[in-house]
Amino acid sequence: MSQTLIAPLHAPAAPRTPSQWTGLSRVPVWAWRALMTRLESGELHKFNAEPIDTVDYHLDIDYVGDGIRDHKLDVLVPHDLTAPLPVYVYFHGGGWTSGDKAPLTKYAASQAQDGMVVVNVNYRMASRLNDFTHMLEDGHSVLDWVSRNIAEFGGDATRIVLGGDSAGGHIAALLTATAYDDDLAAHYDIRPQIDKQHLRGLVQHCSMADFSVIFDRGFILSRNFLRMLLPGRGRGQSLKAAARFLSPIEWLDKGFPPVFLTTSERDFFYQSNMNFVEAMRRRALPIDTLIYSRDRVNAKHTWQQDAKHPESQEVYRRLGAFVRRVAAAPAAALSTGAHPVAMAA
């Protein structure tokens, strides 16, 4: 059942453009990259204060084998594991140009201690050499690694939930869509590395699930972000036609797993999220939502990363319940009782 919580409740306000909510409009790629680079070192320490000691940390595992940091992942496992757990695979945000898994370590640990094996992922980002196809390729390489290796860490590769914040949420959503829609997978020349039935759910934190908003007046990102993600920087292509292949919202008709979506009216991508919610409901696809009003000053874009906020703790509580529901162990496995799980060294 879909649930929406807007807290605190308030009377509907007159419509505003994204630039009125955020004070920002048409930010160029170079400025966004510079801002993200400046924030990263502070976020690493801020978000990981008071680390969680009830999980095991397996850091910087190379999931491709080429030794670069963009192809490293972390696996976080709760202590005293007695039976295989669902697997939560998470992609960090950063505007497709920057970011790293390291600031998300405490976020990942928070979910692991709630009863799941968490895979916290790095991936290649947009550059002169890499476009969005490379991000999807890395995402599918992660899923291939998970399917072959996660049992060593106590995870069940048939019970996977994908998730991410901002650009990472977009990657997770489009990965999910490629597993359900052959036409989208063919467009990116990708062969999904996992059975879609094993993708039990999707978590979206302030995601960019509808790229059509980039054409809206006053949207925070310039259209060069769209060009940046396209092969050849989109030369000779219709940007609106190309945006369809970057928009998870356009690829729901062949099915989609349950979604847990969190956003707020202070989120840069708020309208994109609300469009996605409406599209899911119109197709009677299951979606749970946690949506905060503008009165919640902590609930800014990707606030979910910062565990100190009560709004983040509510996200974690709801996320844990979502994963337990959509990725529950099969009844046959539960009836056999708990068995020790061999853990990776």
TrEMBL record:
UniProt entry tagged with the keyword Cell inner membrane: no
Domain of life: Bacteria
Record flagged with keyword Coiled coil: no
Residues in BD-FAE-like domain copies: 73-267
Record GO terms (molecular function): hydrolase activity
Keyword entries, A-Z: Hydrolase
Gene3D superfamilies, A to Z: alpha/beta hydrolase (3.40.50.1820)
UniProt cross-references to PANTHER family, sorted A to Z: AB HYDROLASE SUPERFAMILY PROTEIN C4A8.06C
UniProt name for this protein: Alpha/beta hydrolase
Taxonomic source organism: Leifsonia kafniensis
